[in-house]
Sequence to fold (177 residues):
Amino acid sequence: MPKEEKIRTVSTIHGKSFSVNLDEAKLPSGRITERIRVIHPDASAVIPILDDGRIILVKQFRYSIQEEMLEIPAGKIDKGETAEECARREFAEETGYSVSNLEFLLTYVPAIGYSNERLHIFKGTDLKKIPEFEYPSDEISRLEILSLAEIHTKIHSGEIQDGKTIVAMALLSKCFK
Fold:
């Protein structure tokens, strides 16, 4: 099986939670090229379903594209934390709800061309509002609670463009059929 071989790391940028390497690599043909690789911790996301079937989404500004995005709650897994523990923590931190039932649905690689991050998607039910919760104003601007049909409309209109949310809604639609 052909494999690209790393020759050396030319440059590295270290961030708070990930790093970016510019590597020199040798292709199976022998040609030398450059590859960018983002070394990123895995993450977890939750499809939070209320008792009435509606889904909680978060609206937050994403610096990389300079826009607010509507998406399912998610976040990176901290060192020593399991994917499920992360899902519960991030969901509570971003929405002000706790989740009693988490069902693992899928792990996928969202940016396979340049990142090693894996994203674990869970379906969450039996949600309870956390009393006196204060939203992280530096992160989340608001919650939107929508039906699956409303979310599909927003996906098809381009209002929802976040990859994990689109994958999650496709999974959820399949699960409900």
